[in-house]
Amino acid sequence: MPSSTPWGRDADQEVTCIACGETLAREDAREYDKHGDRWNREDKTFEYLCKPCDRACCHQPRDGLEATLVAADAGRTDRKTFLRRFCELTTDDTEPNWPES
Ligand SMILES: [Zn+2]
Questions:
Q1: 3-state class of 24 per DSSP?
Q2: Kind and range of the H or E element at 15?
Q3: CA of 51 relative to ligand 1 center, distance in Å
Q4: Which of 50, 59, 72, 86 gives the lowest tally of CB atoms within 10 Å of its CB?
Q5: Which of 53, 35, 51 is nearest to 43 (CA)?
Q6: CA of 90 to the centre of ligand 1 (A)
Q7: What is the pLDDT of residue 70?
Q8: In angstroms, what is the span from residue 54 Cα to ligand 1's centroid?
Q9: What is the pLDDT of residue 25?
Q10: How far apart (Å, rounded) are the C-alpha atoms in residues 44 and 2?
Q11: How far apart are the CA of 69 and the centre of ligand 1, in A?
């Protein structure tokens, strides 16, 4: 496999929603940059949200989402743990319906 920048070829690329873990076509995903400056693409891995989660996130203050991502150790823990924490943090008022491993 030749190494290439992941954003060099957008077509037919699949991404994973950071909120629910759903895999979807990149063109159908909303780009989410937890660092807040999506124009600086150096040495960064972009996060993606599927449209339902993107809508859900828009219902809460942006600052709250950032805090939630930080609290969930975004980028500092493995993806499975992060997703689990993120879901728990974003569903305070409902029982997290996450399959036990
Ligand atoms: Zn999602």
A1: strand
A2: strand 14-16
A3: 7
A4: 59
A5: 35
A6: 12
A7: 78
A8: 7
A9: 92
A10: 19
A11: 14
